[in-house]
# Entry
Amino acid sequence: MHNLQGSLVRLTRPEPSDANLIASLRSSPRVRRWFVDDRPIDHFRNREWLITEAVSDTSGLFVIRSLVDSSFLGFVGWSDHDSASGTVQLGRIAVHPGSYKALSRAIGYAPRLADECGRLLIEFAFTVLAADRIYVEVLPDNHAAIGLVERLGLERVSIQLRSRPNGHLSPVQVFQLQRSEWTASE
# Structure
């Protein structure tokens, strides 16, 4: 697993000590409402998952760390990597709400944090995972995520239905970016 560094953050492989921070952030109502599977995460199972499966051939997770002090700021990941078809789904981004406030007061870069994480993850998908196409699924009322993926150059291609844990179907907007489009825009 590669560590990726931008001008604001470093994306690193999760450590066992990150498990509770990840589970707490992912389980917070403010964050989990934006996931199709919006159930809270069990801390013990999350720790085991991080240790054994958080980075596989088909999925993975990065911890977002501050370049200032290496503190935990959140996480971002990928899933459904299919090397045969050259596709990978990006997503699972969550930034701790206190990070935005603290970073804004300290050095004023919080608004660019998610953008940089997205750019680093796209670079990882195209260069390390060798994906030809990335896609992101976003709930239609998640305006912050829609703005982020559009700023990153992804285009809306469809609306699909996903089954939620409660049995209801929920629409998701699907955005995608081809490697050739990304390379041309760099």
